[in-house]
């Protein structure tokens, strides 16, 4: 089951449950049945554009068992905050009085309250659902504490030999620390969002295509941002934002959010260990509080207002990968960048060559196809 906060840029809409617009008036509420005594698995995803959702089952607890491919310690929750781009799998047991119950999704940390309802019906149900809906929590501190309760289930996931999948990520030496700070400003009268002072814009030629054809210098410049944010984040440069990283190095990335709006980031092509998140600003001393044993391996991370979050990962997947905001308007208006990860061995073991059927565009459209780059 997927949840969509249904937000479009500049215009609110109803919360959507499983593709149906649930306005809460009883006219369009999706229905699911459960047999008494049975346990059911629900997968909850926030595929929206902007808002965090809180999801809850009326009168039922949710046993969390998985998030974004990782088995987690199986705690029971009355409700779950699901940030944009995140997914959770829960188990719900039909062990209550046989009747109808509501499942509820509502927006969180917004000035408005959008709410959607669905019905779960016991097969031997004898009554309608109570109109008294379970309330959503208040404030983002509650959400931060819930985030801290998520732990990797070390008895359920098999260890793998590579560092990224190993249980021993906390024992790997960090080779590089990158701090990303988001900002927003007006540039020539237009709103732009940025990471480390650069607001990304897509060039006419896709960055990976330019790199593969060996004409990257004619399309963009590497590393126009550094590993540390500039002092003045109000000054924003609009340009393609591509950062180089070294293949198979273990890196620490800090996301710092000085704004008042919760941020959510996704790193395509990778999962990473979410080792910490706190209010305030990050300093090296904060490493003493990292979870270096059982942090969740996932591919999205939320960063609360006036707070920071830290992740660790091994760049062991060669290619050109996007790191960007899951908030659609932020990403569209520049809050993203690309990470170029190239293997020095130029082997097809690490990266495939451009397919012969690949369509090309931009300045490489009429250029001869280069010989295979990887062998």
Automatic annotation (TrEMBL):
Keyword Glycoprotein attached: yes
Source organism superkingdom: Eukaryota
SUPFAM superfamilies linked to this entry: Cupredoxins (SSF49503)
Similarity section: Belongs to the multicopper oxidase family.
Coiled coil: none
Molecular function GO labels: copper ion binding; oxidoreductase activity
Domain Plastocyanin-like: 9-124, 205-345
Lineage: Eukaryota, Viridiplantae, Streptophyta, Embryophyta, Tracheophyta
Record-given protein name: L-ascorbate oxidase
InterPro entries: Cu-oxidase_2nd, Cu-oxidase_C, Cu-oxidase_fam, Cupredoxin
UniProt KW keywords: Glycoprotein
């Amino acid at each position: 089951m997927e949840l969509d906060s249904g937000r479009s840029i500049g215009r609110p809409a109803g919360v959507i449950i499983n593709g149906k617009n649930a306005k809460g008036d009883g006219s369009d509420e999706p229905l699911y049945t459960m047999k008494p005594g049975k346990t059911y698995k629900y997968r909850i995803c926030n595929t929206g554009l902007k808002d965090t959702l809180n999801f809850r089952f009326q009168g039922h607890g949710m046993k969390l068992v998985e998030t974004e491919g990782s088995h987690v310690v199986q705690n029971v929750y009355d409700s779950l905050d699901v940030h944009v781009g995140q997914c959770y799998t829960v188990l719900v047991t039909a062990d209550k009085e046989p009747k109808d119950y509501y499942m509820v999704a509502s927006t969180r940390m917004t000035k408005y309250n959008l709410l959607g309802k669905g019905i779960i019906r016991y097969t031997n149900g004898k009554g309608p659902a109570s109109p008294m809906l379970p309330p959503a929590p208040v404030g983002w501190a509650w959400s931060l504490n819930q985030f801290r309760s998520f732990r990797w289930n070390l008895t359920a996931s098999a260890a793998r030999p590579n560092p990224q999948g190993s249980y021993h990520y906390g024992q790997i030496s960090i080779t590089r620390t990158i701090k990303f700070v988001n900002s927003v400003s007006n540039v020539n009268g237009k709103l732009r969002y940025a990471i480390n002072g650069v607001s990304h814009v897509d060039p006419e030629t896709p960055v990976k295509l330019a790199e593969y054809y060996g004409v990257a210098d004619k399309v963009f410049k590497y590393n126009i941002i550094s590993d540390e944010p500039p002092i003045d984040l109000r000054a924003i440069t609009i340009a393609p934002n591509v950062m180089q990283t070294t293949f198979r190095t273990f890196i620490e990335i800090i996301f710092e959010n000085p704004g008042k709006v919760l941020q959510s980031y996704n790193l395509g092509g990778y999962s990473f260990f979410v080792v910490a998140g706190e209010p305030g600003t990050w300093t090296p001393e904060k490493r003493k509080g990292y979870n270096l044993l059982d942090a969740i391996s996932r591919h999205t991370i939320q960063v609360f207002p006036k707070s920071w979050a830290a992740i660790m990962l091994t760049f062991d997947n060669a290619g050109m990968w996007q790191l960007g905001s899951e908030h659609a308007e932020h990403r569209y208006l520049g809050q993203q960048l690309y990470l170029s990860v190239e293997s020095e061995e130029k082997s097809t073991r690490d990266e495939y060559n451009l397919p012969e059927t690949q369509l090309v565009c931009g300045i490489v459209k009429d250029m001869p196809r280069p010989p295979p780059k990887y062998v």
